[in-house]
Design a protein that fits this description.
single chain; 319 residues; alpha/beta; Spore Coat Polysaccharide Biosynthesis Protein SpsA, Chain A; five-stranded mixed sheet
């Protein structure tokens, strides 16, 4: 790959949770009064730990060695296999970045609002869930222009603006995730005069830290404040894609529409991971867990990832 001067130093931020931890489960049930169920909001897949983070970090070391630092945001947890003293890794507890009134928090949207508060975070960062992976060697200019402007990757939808209003004809209610995304897009349309019909590519996103802070503290401050007591995700919470739509509308980001050859989502319940990965050969991919996934489906995840990324990374304990 041709070496090019990077635009900037770039950090990588993950959210990670071990939903099988009995202490974490007890805390969640005490606060919410709810056990894990099969709903979109509270299903096991939202918190399940299929050991993806270990393999995602292997993909980082193989394909993105230029990443400056890696921050793993957790709720008083620590991956048992992670090398605690690795100079490139920092584990950040929710209490370090979230407002007190939001704690304890089991709502990924609320946690994401406060990523810009991570101590020592670079001016430019990538954000990933632990089920997202790099599948090719990529340079910083894949995520940021030479001026340091982030690329926002969206997926086109049939009928564009009218795709989801048309769907409402046949459904009583849209799912929570897409409802949150549409509310953010509508706010940007109403306040900045641009409607983005493309939806998030559900993969690694790029941000400028100061622009992210401004979106949270100024542009969307009312929506953020209204969600602080949403300990689990709810209809009406703001999705972080609103920050990207705002950045696009104000010239602080550049738009790229992507397909499966660039950004691929592998639904765990559909299996055939390797077959689909080879078919599209994407730059990025994610393994999407959900209310449709069974424990039997999840058993296929680790063998697939072990085949793709068999070499241990320096981020793992030697023993």
């Amino acid at each position: 790959m041709e070496e090019r001067e990077p635009c900037c130093e770039v950090d990588l931020v993950y959210l990670w949770v071990d939903g099988s931890d009995p202490d974490w489960l007890a805390k969640k049930q005490l606060v919410t009064g709810e056990e894990i169920d099969h709903s979109e909001v509270n299903n096991k897949g939202r918190y399940a730990n299929n050991d993806e983070l270990r393999y995602s970090l292997r993909s980082v070391e193989r394909y993105l060695p230029w990443v400056r630092r890696i921050f793993i945001v957790t709720d008083d947890q620590f991956p048992e296999w992670l090398e605690r003293d690795h100079p490139k890794i920092s584990v950040i507890d929710h209490r370090e970045i979230l407002p007190e009134e939001a704690l304890p928090c089991f709502n990924s949207s609320v946690i994401e609002y406060f990523l810009y508060r991570i101590p020592g975070l670079a001016d430019h960062f990538l954000f990933a869930n632990d089920d997202m992976f790099f599948n090719k060697a990529l340079l910083p200019d894949y995520f940021f222009s030479k001026e340091g402007i982030p690329y926002v990757r969206l997926k086109r939808k049939l009928l564009r603006r009218w795709h989801y209003p048309f769907k409402r004809i046949f459904r009583k209610k849209l799912g929570q995730y897409i409802s949150m995304v549409l509310e953010g897009a509508t706010f940007v349309d109403r306040n900045f005069g641009v409607f983005y019909s493309g939806i998030p590519h559900h993969n690694v996103d790029a941000f400028v830290t100061e622009d992210f802070r401004h979106a949270v503290e100024v542009v969307f401050s009312e929506q953020v404040a209204a969600s602080l007591h949403s300990h689990v995700r709810q209809y009406g919470d703001l999705h972080r894609s609103a920050f990207s739509y705002y950045a696009l509308a104000t010239g602080k980001a550049k738009l790229k529409y992507v397909g499966r050859k660039e950004s691929l989502r592998l639904n765990i319940y559909r299996q055939r991971f390797l077959q689909r990965l080879k078919r599209y050969d994407p730059d990025l991919f994610c393994l999407n867990d959900s209310q449709r996934v069974s424990d039997a489906d999840r058993t296929a995840v680790r063998p697939f990832l072990e085949e793709l990324f068999p070499e241990k990374s320096s981020f793992e304990k030697s023993i």
